[in-house]
Amino acid sequence: MATEEPSFKVLKSDGNIEIREYKSYCIAETFILLPEFEDASNAGFKKLFKFISGNNQSNKNIQMTAPVTTSRSEKIEMTAPVTTTKSLDGYLVGFVMPDGFTLATTPTPNDSTIKIREVPARKVAVIRFSGRWTSSSMDEHEQELRQWLSKNNFVSIGQAVIARYDPPFMPWFLRRNEIQIELTP
Known about the structure:
Helix content is 18%, strand content 41%. The protein is built from two helices and nine strands, in the order E-E-E-H-E-E-E-E-H-E-E. It is α+β, with helices and mostly antiparallel strands and 185 residues long. It has a single domain, classed as Multidrug-efflux Transporter 1 Regulator Bmrr, Chain A (Alpha-Beta Barrel), CATH 3.20.80.10.
């Protein structure tokens, strides 16, 4: 059975790079204060997996979706409006909620470090690649995507998001990964 993913429409495609238009969706996120990508990603995944496995005020199991997202050097503080503040010592790890979940219908996490927020509809540049989840691989693909964006006159906003679609036991050469960068409207 296929794992659910957020809905999007491809606006432009060029090899392994796409410009996509995403509909809004809800995401559960936690900020992990660790300097290494792999350590922070694993710690965030464990917290979020407990949340979708019933560690929430409704004791409700939530279906696993893809991708698991990780934002480097960024912490989102829950204020009105939502603002983004750079932090050089941590990662924001997120699970996309299944289709139909809203801020009102997503169970409240028992772990106060997990926040639920709505990701608004937006346009995103994406580069797809397979391989290991290393910082050097992420940096290499982010640089390639940013060069493509510059060459094609797209303007990006915010930090790159690492999107991982496969479990860690998937052989590295079969893993589906993406770097996603939001574009100006």
